[in-house]
Amino acid sequence: NAGVMQNPRHLVRRRGQEARLRCSPMKGHSHVYWYRQLPEEGLKFMVYLQKENIIDESGMPKERFSAEFPKEGPSILRIQQVVRGDSAAYFCASSPTGINGYTFGSGTRLTVV
Amino acid sequence: DQQVKQNSPSLSVQEGRISILNCDYTNSMFDYFLWYKKYPAEGPTFLISISSIKDKNEDGRFTVFLNKSAKHLSLHIVPSQPGDSAVYFCAASAGSGGGADGLTFGKGTHLIIQP
Question: Which of B75, B97, B92, B107 is nearest to B27 (CA)?
């Protein structure tokens, strides 16, 4: 049973480009969470999704960031017109129902140059 | 405004001794607490959790203690082993563990186990 798969592991984008981060949850997990970790910081909650629904996006920046979890395929975190401050590690976690089953992926390290 | 605080950025402990990692929180709505371990270039791995209705939870070498009145929890690792060297994150939830909301993380404590 593969764990939570995130790709790419590393992503370099120039300022103004778009970044698309993918997350495939564990088999049987229908809850997906995205977190961002800035250097020397803890993980910050961004968004919580279930299939085709955004449940809680209270941690998402109001502009340029969006997330989806379609019926088929991985969850996507999309950052438009990236800026240097978006450089961070982005982690996805999945869960079957409760927090105890929260499994994290290895993250995508985004570098904006 | 940091709602979950880990005031020690790093901690060095000799192999075989007890490691004690501390965490304080300010939000009285938090009712479920977790500890995660993280190696470089990997995602956090769940270690142990505790509900606010308990004051202690034990799993092998890992024990978490919760003092609700002081809004403080701690993770004890005994005996400490070299493989325990990692960054440990304390996290909290106000969702009673039901997964309906995100977790609030501390900044982490880098535990170094010395041989």
Answer: B92
> Of A81, A93, A92, A86, which Cα lies nearest the Cα of A110?
A86
Interface of A with B (CB under 8 A): 4, 6, 31, 33, 35, 40-46, 48, 55-56, 58-59, 91, 93, 95, 97-107
Cis omega (within 30 of 0) for bond into B44: no
Across A17-31, A71-85, A93-107, least confident range: A93-107
Tokens matching residue A31: 């809850």
Convert the pLDDT of each residue in B38-94 to its tens digit: 999 899 999 999 999 999 999 999 999 999 999 999 999 999 999 999 999 999 988
Q: What is the pLDDT of residues B44-57, one digit of tens each?
A: 999 999 999 999 99
Q: What angle do CA B58, B43, B110 make, to 5 degrees?
A: 65
**What is the number of alpha carbons within 13 Å of residue B22 lying toward its C-beta?**
9
Mutate to test the interface with A, among B7, B37, B46 (most CBs of A within 10 A): B46
Residue spans of beta strands (DSSP E) within B6-115? 10-14, 19-25, 32-38, 45-51, 56-59, 62-67, 72-77, 86-93, 104-105, 109-114
Of A44, A91, A99, Cβ closest to residue B99: A99
